[in-house]
Amino acid sequence: MATLKDVAKEAGLTVGTVSRVLNNRGYISDDAREKVNGAMKKLNYHPNEVARSLQGKSTNTIGLIVPHIRHPYFAEMISNIENQAYKKGYRILLCNAQSIEEKEREYIDICTGNRVAGIILCSGTVSVEVFDGIRVPVITMERFLDNGTAAVECDNRQGGTLAAERLISCGCRHLLHVGNISSISMPADQRTEGFRQVCEKMGVAFHEVFTEKSQYHNMKYDALIEKALQEHPETDGLFVNSDVIAAQALQVCRRMGISVPGQMKVIGFDDVNIAALTTPQLTTIHQPVREMAEIAVNLLHDAASGKIVPKRTVLPVYLVERETA
Amino acid sequence: MATLKDVAKEAGLTVGTVSRVLNNRGYISDDAREKVNGAMKKLNYHPNEVARSLQGKSTNTIGLIVPHIRHPYFAEMISNIENQAYKKGYRILLCNAQSIEEKEREYIDICTGNRVAGIILCSGTVSVEVFDGIRVPVITMERFLDNGTAAVECDNRQGGTLAAERLISCGCRHLLHVGNISSISMPADQRTEGFRQVCEKMGVAFHEVFTEKSQYHNMKYDALIEKALQEHPETDGLFVNSDVIAAQALQVCRRMGISVPGQMKVIGFDDVNIAALTTPQLTTIHQPVREMAEIAVNLLHDAASGKIVPKRTVLPVYLVERETA
DNA sequence: TTTGATATGTCAATCGTTTAACATATTTTC
DNA sequence: GAAAATATGTTAAACGATTGACATATCAAA
């Protein structure tokens, strides 16, 4: 592996001059520049980023912690974050916590150990204290941490409101809501709040069922939905917290002989690819994932540069009318 | 940020001893071990992995290059690779090439610049020469490189064979195959070969349409499929190269008033989550993604340790019978 | 008592790059 | 012809951990 020294020798210059060319510092002649470029090409030289990082104070790496990759919402989120990070010259250290606290905590250590420029934490489950000792910016997505640097969310309450309004205006009178994991408090809980408020105001009954962490992991919601529909056979409107759940609800309805949207209206959340690939296609709440991702990376960048950044950013959602409601 | 020196001072020992504790080298007393652990905890010390990497010859990072993240097949692949990598103590540097040669090439440079232990390249599109100068192991998935270290594939030909046999045994006599990007030669082209061979042997006509690189990127196949079905209205069996395409084909059929599986049988490829969430559910060819991922990481690990590894590993596929064929 | 195992200290080099201080040219400009 | 700008060289410290050579000390067993 060629080093700066090798390049310098090849170019007949000193490391100082070569470094000046590389970093565009001080005075450099066109002649020197050419010699250096030629030598670099000839030796197939690539600066050792590890050494660079050690010399400087931190790396250009973002630690991206997600609970899952297979879940289309997070796949979408990761993709958008990578895009923006790449544009800004950051790399992604991918941390798949799998909703396992232990693994999440370990990955946080790995991030700090690798001197990341900052951490983007998507829907983390780890407790607050873990972040007390962290000196790098921590940007949370769909999760608020008192000791975090900044949080990015969509307007979850508004999403719940839109869903309830839509279902009720479709004529539904017996609603069922598949909410979040009950054990962890999340901004996404606000979906339920918005939903509840509308229902109460309009005098429409609704039941709520909670998911479990393990389901978040294996993405199997069939049994839960089937059980809930059996317990509440009068249900004619369903609002669930993700399109993945909604897609499975459609399968359950089909198995149970419940026609959608005839007997049952369904509204999902996220508006990921899958929403347009089910039959009937899913009506859902659109999360502005791209914008959230861009903002998160920008916040991280600004915070890492020592700027003061807004503690909380909330982006609007909107209803996408398709076929299920 | 606490350093080894700080820990040594806090523990009342020297860096040598502390290093011995950390790396379990030489003689260490329980007393010293305790002192060091206490000091580490007190100072919230995390070894600087950057410095460690610089000192050693390479990092414990795998450069994972994928053409897409949003595509469920790659999301699945990434997830499985991360899992196995984590078990083996590797980190993932996520490189989303977006099927852009320029970006893929740049990411390869970034990987070498960051002194990754090895590269796992999924369905890369970059030309062979790029890898000539690379000294780290390069494991390719679903792509064969003469100058690569090892390649992992599924039995694509077998997949094509199974699909053709199934469609024909379902009574289809006018087949259509949505194949790969025509401009790049890939192992996945073998699906077409296997498919063709069976069709020819059985005397069943079939047409083939090719996808474009941009479609791989934006995952929009509707127009292509619709056009193909209009050009070949006699089609009664469809074999497409991914479940994403198949799911869209179902939507197109619905729009065109073609009943599936009544008038049209459909077989996808990959067997990702989405396959069980469409209506009707997709019959598809299962790729052993988990096994492929594990093998890839193991190959990388072995190759990085200087072992000789098999140049090509092909894993079996099988047909998953659901509702579309 | 001697030997050897155990335990720690000291010191310095190394990994590859950056950067600053300082010296020394050459060329340009007034 | 002097001053200023341009260009490069020299040297060394720094980033943080690893590692090896070597010294020294304690304690056990032979």
Fold topology:
2 copies of one chain form a homodimer.
Chain A: H1 4-11, H2 15-23, H3 30-43, H4 49-55, E1 61-66, H5 72-87, E2 91-96, H6 101-113, E3 118-122, E4 138-141, E5 150-154, H7 156-169, E6 174-181, H8 189-202, E7 205-211, H9 213-218, H10 222-231, E8 237-240, H11 243-256, E9 265-270, E10 283-286, H12 289-304, E11 312-315, E12 318-320
Parallel strand pairs in A: 1-2, 1-3, 3-4, 4-5, 5-11, 6-7, 6-8, 8-9, 9-10
Antiparallel strand pairs in A: 10-12
Helix pairs in contact in A: 1-2, 1-3, 5-12, 7-8
Chain B binds a DNA duplex (30 and 30 nucleotides) through helix 2 and helix 4.
Quick summary of this structure?
With about 325 residues, the first copy, chain A, is of the alpha/beta class. Chain A has helices spanning about 5-10, 15-25, 30-45, 50-55, 70-85, 100-115, 155-170, 190-200, 215-220, 220-230, 245-255, 290-305; strands at about 60-65, 90-95, 120, 140, 150-155, 175-180, 205-210, 235-240, 265-270, 285, 310-315, 320.
